[in-house]
Amino acid sequence: YNLMANRVLLLLAMASRSDPNVSSKILSETAGHFLKNLKSQLPQTRILAISALNTLLKESPYKTSLEDRPLLSENSQGNSKSSLEGALSEIFQEDGFFDETFNSLSHVHIIADTESTSSRGSHGNSSFQSLADKSITRFYFDFSASWPRTPSWISLLGSDTFYSNFARIFKRLIQECGMPMIVAIKSTVEEFANAKERSKQCVAAEALAGVLHSDVDGLLGAWDSWMMIQLKSIILAPSVESIPEWAACIRYAVTGKGKHGTRVPLLRQQILNCLVTPLPPTVTTTVVAKRYAFLSAALIEISPQKMTLPEIQLHIGLLEELLNNMCHSSAHVREAIGVTLSVLCSNIRLHASFSHEYSHEGVNSDIDNYLKEERWVQFLTERASESVTNIQNNNHSDNLEVSANCSTQNGHLKGDSQDDVKWMESLFHFIISTLKSGRSSCLLDIIVGLLYPVISLQETSNKDLSTLAKAAFELLKWRIFWEPHLQKAVSIILSSADDSNWRTRSATLTYLRTFMYRHTFILPDTEKKDIWNTVEKLLTDNQVEVREHAAAVLAGLMKGGDEKLAKDFRDRAYKEANMIQRQNKRNSSFSQSVASRHGAVLALVASVLSVPYDMPSWLPEHVTLLARFSGEATPVKSTVTKAVAEFRRTHADTWNLQKDSFTEEQLEDTICIEHGGSIPHSFSSFRLLSIVMLYFLMQLALLLPSRACASSTHTLAPW
């Protein structure tokens, strides 16, 4: 009933707001009532109070306008007071008000050990609320703007319990009441920011975010006096549990204002400058990773096309720092560097695409040239190629027995290779983050240039590096490349298929399966044919795993690829296999390499397995010819046995109808292979009856006396 009464009070206050006959005292007392409810003992009442304050606090007399910013003073005069300021100020200036309020709000933040998804902005996730309570307390949040404005893909930031609606009430309270509110909240924010409990740090993060984003007169002075010091303290704090909440706080503080989020907040540049300030050399790697996490959270909220000159300069300076630190000794730092680098590079690229908009803003020629030359792109691709070569050479040397002198040399190579491994790990984090971000279109030329490193490092002696390469590989498989990047991608794929390392050739085939699926309708005919020829060539590869993989890929290509290319391949495969069979019959000593022989059979296998459920007119002949290779040596024999068994399995449901497409002889040749020479059930009834009768007669002959058996020889002779 208490909750329902508060809800009705809020409805009445909203309805009377536009009525000129209603005294402003009613609205101010109502707002004060809900402000007091923030420290209520009833959790549902606290949540409804947050909803009510976000609805009622609309005036912003202390908010700095764009026109006033060049002439900011610490105490601007002439601000008309809000109608709610008097009642609100009287309440929050009470002793211990914010201490009690923060403590009450911290109970709303329920931190679960198994927390796996971000609850950002949705405070109604608490277990203490029933469905009926949620229907009352959450109603008004449906009308509030969602935050953050940009997608959240950075797993590095973790799962947070930062509630943007909580931050919004602190921001609006400051905009209603001005600097007295900031002064009153200062000590409580500092106390809770240093608390050990994560829930208390959550509330402190929300309050500080609201303060930083309030843009009121006098905010710059407060930043210099205590907020900058507080932010630096948060960065240098050794704890890691509350990193997601503080990252969300920074992200909220730099979020653009206005309908489209392109207006720069008052303190954005100051916050960014604080974040890019170099850390003391004695800090732990945890603090280094935290700083990069905070930077990535801030940079994703910047609107690239509206970046100011200081923001462009900050991006360039930070880019140089990241490129120099990609070989960092800590894996967590390397991950943070890769993620931050992806945000940074996408911002630079997106900004450069709007170059015509910043040319008149006084950007000096050095920065303009830097953005156009893109030396960092060349550095990434060239260093990646060099690192891959070093890693592969080192892996090869590990498998060779060398003399003592060579061992000394290899020791030096291993030392260099460790740096290459670390650098490539950072690069893979960059690729993974870019592909997850939804911004990969602006970095597509770089992604294409890094195709070979991703494909070739799937299997290395370094487990962590291979794991990252596989993660990047899985994301990369579903990325569509448009012209002019498509032609370059095909060229890299074809060269990778001819790599000296068989694992790279196999990984290329894996990538080709999804690549062809995604690009079937946009690939030119010439490039399609080149890919088909390359895969067909791998049917005779020296490595049996590559040959079998190529057959599987060709089967997939024939299922959904170009029908003309599929028919041409099918006809050539049948013709070549048939020719080998005839030569075997004519000359039993006919010699041919195992790879060539196996490749011809695999071509037939690809044709047969390309139609797993249908029975086209050409299929019986292909299956029959394939079955005739069952007498070959391994690996041909095992390939034939598996293929025929798979054919029978996929056609089992409709076999009663489809077997009519086979002749009697074709059925015998095909089915006997699967049964390993045992009696197939599809023999004609006459032959089956004959075999059964012969069996019983032989048993009878064993039971007869030898004399009777001898006299009965003429009877058994016809059988």
From TrEMBL:
<dbReference type="GO" id="GO:0070628">
    <property type="term" value="F:proteasome binding"/>
</dbReference>
<feature type="domain" description="Proteasome activator complex subunit 4 C-terminal">
    <location>
        <begin position="595"/>
        <end position="669"/>
    </location>
</feature>
<dbReference type="GO" id="GO:0016504">
    <property type="term" value="F:peptidase activator activity"/>
</dbReference>
<protein>
    <recommendedName>
        <fullName>Proteasome activator complex subunit 4 C-terminal domain-containing protein</fullName>
    </recommendedName>
</protein>
<keyword id="KW-0732">Signal</keyword>
<dbReference type="InterPro" id="IPR035309">
    <property type="entry name" value="PSME4"/>
</dbReference>
<dbReference type="InterPro" id="IPR016024">
    <property type="entry name" value="ARM-type_fold"/>
</dbReference>
<dbReference type="InterPro" id="IPR011989">
    <property type="entry name" value="ARM-like"/>
</dbReference>
<dbReference type="InterPro" id="IPR021843">
    <property type="entry name" value="PSME4_C"/>
</dbReference>
<dbReference type="Pfam" id="PF11919">
    <property type="entry name" value="PSME4_C"/>
</dbReference>
<feature type="signal peptide">
    <location>
        <begin position="1"/>
        <end position="18"/>
    </location>
</feature>
